[in-house]
Cystathionine gamma-synthase
Amino acid sequence: MSEQRDNGIAGVDAGTDSAGGDPAGRHPGGFETLAIHAGQEPDAATGAVVPPIYQVSTYKQDGVGGLRGGYEYSRSANPTRTALEENLAALEGGPRGGRGLAFASGMAAEDCLLRTLLTPGDHVVIPDDAYGGTFRLFARVAERWGVQWSVADSSDPEAVRAAVRERTKAVWVETPSNPLLGITDIAAVAEVAHAAGARLVVDNTFASPYLQQPLALGADVVVHSMTKYMGGHSDVVGGALVARDPALADELAFHQNAMGAVCGPFDSWLVLRGLKTLAVRMDRHCANAARVAQLLQAHPKVSTVFYPGLPEHPGHEIAAKQMRAFGGMVSFRVAEGEEAAVRVCDRARLFTLGESLGGVESLIEHPGRMTHASAAGSALEVPADLVRLSVGIESVDDLLADLTQALG
Ligand SMILES: *Cc1c(COP(=O)(O)O)cnc(C)c1O
């Protein structure tokens, strides 16, 4: 993706569209600059350099229908959420534009998306390696409303092509995937989806917009759990959609308001604060994860390491093409099996045993019994000897020492 290589990252001259970037062109458009400034002009009344938390439900009208800035009720729009939504559009949409929408959680964003895109009888292709909650949403919720789904290995565009049907309306991919760090060629799968008349949805949670910008590669909608790297401090739950096509974005915004699972003002503010440091945090997450992957690869008690930065990883070349760096997530299989994998999780100290990911602190978990327990018995079942790490930004030597002692 030459745009990313030439000028740092696609999106550098955001500001050509009204929804993203800085329409007035006041800011140079480097990613870090946009993360700190897009959607966040100093407050007009006070000059406050950070958008206030507009903890309010309703707004005085100047005569019936005389809205100030379009605000009438905070489910429909709230200024703190608007600041975040404009920031999301700038970071993911880039020069091609796009509109950001912020939700109460990643799952709320996914739910809004699937109810906007699909009607009973429609079909979705989902990946064979996906966030457990995404699988559960299709298998246990959407299916009851008549949505058909089937599973394909999205790292193989031909497998996706074979899975599409007449009523396929969406192809859903996650790259890097959770928890096996599989890589999907976004541009290749976009072509397959579009040839079938379907939209390509990319869950970009693991990469974050700093490492990868799917809309620039042909995706139609990007999904995020802002709970993870975007928030970055394990202190907020939120979700996002960024859509490229304005007509689809309008439909999504209609559903966001009609269904109502919006991101609250304080949560929006926390995510905005997190986004300001996304680039520097991701750089350190990536550097630390690369060291952790090397350590694990050389360890006799580890049978397989899943990290797209390793040259042996089957998706390494594609990851190198479509990502700025390889991310902060590392998974591995413990040679002695499931009980040994659980023991590693129990013995880790600096790596905190817990679900979630993407915060500054390192986390360890056993996907089979924790995050992916709901996929047991399905095509998305994960190996029982798998351990997943969210490598934080602590001193890397401390992280390596903790893993060494935990592996015994
Ligand atoms: C956590 C996560 C989600 C769901 O987001 P929530 O904020 O927990 O609702 C979706 N996709 C991926 C890849 C995730 O890691």
About this structure: The first strand starts at residue 99 and ends at 103. The pocket of pyridoxal-5'-phosphate is lined by residues 105-107, 131, 133-134, 174, 178, 203, 205-206, 225, 227-228, 237, 239 (CB under 6 Å). The two ends are 42 Å apart (CA to CA). The domain at 278-407 is CATH 3.90.1150.10 (Aspartate Aminotransferase, domain 1).
